[in-house]
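Hey all, quick one. A colleague (J.T.) asked me to put the flavin-adenine dinucleotide job into the tracker so the inputs and the structure tokens live in one place instead of scattered across chat threads. No bug as far as I know, just bookkeeping. Sequence used:
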Amino acid sequence: MANAAKTGNVLVLVETDGSGAPKSTAAALLGAAAAIGTPVAVAVTAPGQGPSLAEQLGSLGAGQVYLAESENAATELGTTIVGALSAAAAAYAATVVLVPNTNDSKTVAGRLAIVAGGSVAADAVAVRYDEEGQEVIVSHSVFGGDFTTESAADGGLLIVTVRPGAIEARADAVAAPQVEYVSVSTAAAPGATILQATDIPAQTGRPALRGAKAVVSGGRGLASKENFALVEQLADTLGAAVGASRAAVDAGYVPQSYQVGQTGVSVTPQLYVALGISGAIQHRAGMQTSKTIVAINQDGDAPIFEVADFGVVGDIFSVVPQLIEEINARRN
Ligand code: FAD
């Protein structure tokens, strides 16, 4: 990678939670930005929350932080951040913008492409410079992870939506990032307003499925809602999130929000454990890019073994309790 290519500013859209702290997607985006240039974190913040947010972004590797303060930060859907990114792209002469591949930020990516004149490269799993250090190349994992394709922009702003969990690189912390507060015009991109929002308290202390470092999923092989507790026990032993196949969801073992796959959540954890899941293409579409896949299934011909790094042919009701016991024994 040519050094010249790494000197450009790369904007990173930082999503924040209700308290104004950066969401978990920020670290990987700043890591990806640092690999191809100089990260500039861009966020909308409520008045008073800027200093704390900037400090947290510095610890994640943002040397420069561009903050648009807005009284309506919590109720606007994308409007201000589109204006902020557009203004930041001009102020920092940035040609690349990285945003999380989440529902909110995908909307922002599309709007920004219209407002600032750019192209969207969706659902990226990696970004790099080409051999000459001239062009940013975006990698996408497609057809359920069976193929990797690459894309590049034909000029204009390149807006990349990055799949949560896909990037492992992290940027070096910056002790005192430069912070710029701006007020941006929102007239160019009118958006929706959130009239009412309700915080849904987490039902469990487990990590959220999207972006989790480890996921344990259960399928129809669990055979009942009660038996699904086995999946949860292994997940808790590993500190993992809980997922499920569509068959498990359809059978009522767990809510639809647990579903991994083509019509559910796409995950890319370090560890994915599939229990009693056959490995249909629609399920694999949502987990095949996991770093290490472990499958336990009593059918040695189950397609899940085609993508598994480690497989156990056996009865989950016999294997999983032993696995939990062994993990606990090694831990103590
Ligand atoms: P099954 O295919 O029935 O497999 C159960 C497995 O459990 C079997 O391999 C069996 O050997 C094993 N087993 C049974 N008992 C035990 C035991 N005691 N110990 C060990 N192993 C055992 N599916 C998804 O998951 N996600 C999606 O997003 C999704 N989207 C879809 C979209 C469309 C348009 C369509 C048509 C389908 C979609 N599906 C999706 C459904 C998908 O095709 C499969 O039907 C589904 O993934 C099967 O779930 P399963 O593996 O749990 O069940």
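Adding what we noticed when we looked at it: Residues 219-221, 245-248, 259-264, 276-278, 280, 282-283, 286, 297-299, 302, 315-317 surround flavin-adenine dinucleotide (CB under 6 Å). Residues 316-331 form the longest helix (16 residues).
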